[in-house]
Amino acid sequence: MAKKPMLYEIQYTGAAARDLKKLKGNRPVLESIDRKIVALRANPRSHGVEKLTDDTTYRVRDGEYRILYEIDDKAKTVLITRVRDRKEAYRDR
Questions:
Q1: What is the β-pairing status of strands 77-85 and 65-72?
Q2: What's the domain range around 35?
Q3: Total structural domains in the chain?
Q4: pLDDT reading at 88 higher than 90
Q5: pLDDT value of position 31
Q6: Is the residue at 25 inside a domain?
Q7: The domain that contains 20 carries what CATH number?
Q8: Quick one: which of 5, 58, 60, 89 has the fewest CB in 10 Å?
Q9: Is 76 left (phi over 0), alpha (psi -120 to 50) or beta?
Q10: Chain-centre distance of CA 11, in angstroms?
């Protein structure tokens, strides 16, 4: 019998939660971002994910938005740190 892969738990920083709250009025964008985040549960290093230069942060694109996150393989968690427009995504990290 095939073993089910362990899914990662998704967690959010306060800043990421505020970023998502700002997008509540834009339902299509919010739903698209949510699909990308849910997909990270199964494979946080999938095709299209880029490791940023600081060696702890990863980035996945979703249209004009960037989802920045960190992976803890021991705890099986993905910590979403920011969800921002591509023009602002890398400021104040």
A1: antiparallel
A2: 13-85
A3: 1
A4: no
A5: 95
A6: yes
A7: 3.30.2310.20
A8: 5
A9: left
A10: 9
